[in-house]
Amino acid sequence: MNCRLSCSQARVLLLLAALGFILLHPPAAGAVAPWSSARQFLADAGIDSSGFFDLRAGRRLVDPVHEKHTSLAEARLQVELNADFGWGLVKFKNDFLADPVTDDYLAEVRELSLILFPLDFVDVKLGRQVLTWGTGDLLFVNDLFPKDWKSFFCGRDTEYLKAPADAVKVSVFLDLVNVDLVYVPLFNGSDYIDGNRLSYWNPLLGRTAGRNHVFHDEDRDAFFDEDEWAVRLYRTINGIEAALYGYDGYWKTPEGFNPRSGRLIYPRLRVYGASVRSDLLGGLGNLEAGYYDSLDDRQGDDPYVRNSEWRFLAGFEHELGRDFTGGLQYYLEYMSDYADYQRTLPAGMAGKDRSHSIFTLRLTKLLLNQNLTLSCFVYYSPTDEDCYLRPKASYKINDYWLVEGGVNLFFGRDDYTFFGQLEDNSNAFLATRVSF
Amino acid sequence: MKKNKTVSFVMGGLLLLFFSLPSALLAAESLTVDQIVERANLAAYYAGKDGRATVKMVITDAQGRTRRREFTILRYDLEDGGEQYFYVYFKEPADVRKMVYLVHKHPGKDDDRWLYLPALDLVKRIAASDKRTSFVGSHFVYEDVSGRGIEEDSHELVETSDQYYVLNNVPKDPRSVEFSSYKIWIDRKTFMPMKAEYLDREGQLYRVVEALEVKDIQGYPTVVRSQVKDLAGGGQTISEFSRISYDIGLKENIFTERYLRRPPRAARR
Q: Which of A55, A64, A146, A298 has the fewest CB atoms found within 10 Å of its own CB?
């Protein structure tokens, strides 16, 4: 037995020790007083500042396949600065991250943007920013902005599901309709499950792979050529929030394969969609639909590029009791040209069903003067026969300190379905955060 | 003199208090219950065309632990006693900083409410039914902030003292609320609701909302300190209002999704 600790294991232990200490000895509110004076200093200079320090550790609940036992171990400092110059606003949000699991020690700009108001009815936001729209709850139909699924599955804060994009967003506010137009000069994909940190089903190998077979893709890197456009038109009509969406760019995850290079590719994609959201039966209801037009495989007969498909989403949220809410969603992906897909599917490859549906359930209960939040989010797919459970508890010790713990549990009948492939990544995590 | 025609009543007046009646109107002649309640509603919620205030809350739980909240409230009236908008911008504590709570109040039907979560850049619509839940963990409830609906209670004048009209109020739909009735003390000069006592379903007093200090601001009597006591669970919340001003010329379009993402200066300062 090898008793020596590797450098990264030592760091993980150090992190866990620090986390344990904070959990056992929650610091008093006064411990963050130095931040207050720093904030005041910046405020006097016209800069509004805030941020947090976050320690987080997680471990796999089952033996990993080609991954570390530790699923998460990181220290993160986020600093956000905002300045209002009258003619415009500048926003800056930076994360400093020490992550021994992937050996990343880096500074990551989450936002660096300039907001201008060229006309009374026009806002322009330039630079790195997090973008989102649509009506789904942790399901996305017309939101084609980058996501970070790894962060989501390993127990980071939900904030990190939304990855930033370098974009220009022009918002026009008219009586008839409001328009958001987003231009991304260089395609920005989602961070998908590629074998780093989380193991996955590798269809080429026909088995589960991890760090031994990290998926590589062919980056799109031609500025102003491999670009993205997204548009939303929205208005409220008699209390019903209605929106139309359009997107022109690429599949956000590499839904294509280049047999010559053996690498994944991001095929072209256009999406047209619509949504409505409104009060319904004492709760809130929403409907959303989108057509994913896979431009590189419009006939559906290219086995290496994902077919076009329809996506539908229906949701309903209702209060079940005091400080207790429940939400249900039904989501469907329905493949176009299924006969062509089946006809051209390479021999020996596991074929997909024509439709892929998911039900989600969210339950949220607030306790102890809303300082304790118990929540559970469940994805269940009857077509894939897999599911994903996200129970979580978080407690605000005082106005500054928060502790939370949760579990990410994956189950599936088959190893090759979306959640089923993640079964060996089921994990539990603990975290503490101080905000300033 | 029980009246069945129901009227908007506003415990939230104690929280928000924007007064709108010239004192010349405060005649001493006897008023109907409807008139008293309507005037109290206007006094508590409809001062000026619009208004702003900075609110500092201290929430004390049954064990004596305290938590603080600081936010700015902007209000805009479309019509006195009718539709109005509220924009609540959070400044403290840090984990809720820059969050915005937006209400489009529609007297007589469900309000539209949204919460903006800046970390996710997400505009979340809130289901309309849970108006009696705690507002940001305090002992105030959402309904205290934006006002209790006009048709929701029957009102009865039970006492007229030198200083107060005392009204008893019974919800028309008892299942929709946690109280069986509440009694309210309305100042006869200013029509400001000064105190409210809530009885639970067993008829026990369990919640008291009180105006602790009233000041004249731009000619409008304005509550600058108020308190809620939870007699059943223990604990209390005290709200202090500062930097209050009325008729500041807020634009109606501030109360839209656009300004959730880009809070106006009136909210941030």
A: A298
Report the distance separating Cα B204 and Cα B182, nearest Å: 11
Instruction: State whether A283 and B129 contact (CB < 8 Å).
Output: yes
Tokens found for residue A148: 């970070």
- Number of Cβ within 10 Å of residue A219's Cβ equals 14
The answer to whether the CB of A130 falls within 8 A of the CB of A121 is: no
Contacts of A359 (CB under 8 A, 6+ apart): A328, A329, A330, A331, A379, A380, A381, A382
Q: A123 vs B97: CB contact, 8 Å cut-off?
A: no
Q: Among B67, B253, B258, select the one facing A171 at the smallest CB separation.
A: B258
B121 shares contact with chain A (CB less than 8 Å): yes
The CA distance from B119 to the nearest CA of chain A, in Å, is 6
Q: Which residues of A touch B256 (CB under 8 A)?
A: 173
Residue whose C-alpha is closest to residue B223's, from B26, B47, B32, B76:
B47
Tell me what the mean pLDDT of segment B78-91 comes to: 90
Cβ <8 Å between A159 and B93: no
Digit-coded pLDDT (tens) for B132-159: 888 888 999 888 877 787 678 899 999 8
Are B262 and A123 in contact (CB < 8 Å)? yes
The H or E element containing residue B79 is: none
Report d(CA A128, CA B117) in Å as an integer. Answer: 18
When pLDDT is averaged across residues B198-212 and rounded to a whole number, the result is 93
Task: Flag residues of chain A having pLDDT under 50.
Answer: 1-5
